[in-house]
Structure to design on (85 residues):
């Protein structure tokens, strides 16, 4: 099995409208999330969430797919490293 370490930045346009959906997805994939930081945009209802993930590439891809299905979010993924076991 191949594990990857990935970083995802989620740009949230409307925190109030999307926070339940985002938190549900992040809870669903909690086993691969090793770090999470949220930064509110003080001038509006926007925020930035950064995630550090480690796990199977399929699970990481599924998380990104689920996040991009939320209208108020945009997700970007960068693979940092791959480990073979």
């Amino acid at each position: 099995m191949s594990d990857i370490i990935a970083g995802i930045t989620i740009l949230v346009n409307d925190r109030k409208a999307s926070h339940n959906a985002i938190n549900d997805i992040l809870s669903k994939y909690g086993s691969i999330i090793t770090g999470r930081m949220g930064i509110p945009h003080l001038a509006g209802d926007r925020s930035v969430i950064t995630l550090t993930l480690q796990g199977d590439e399929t699970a990481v891809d599924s998380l990104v797919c689920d996040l991009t299905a939320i209208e108020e979010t945009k997700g970007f993924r960068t693979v940092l490293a791959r480990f073979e076991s």
Notes: The longest helix spans residues 15-28.
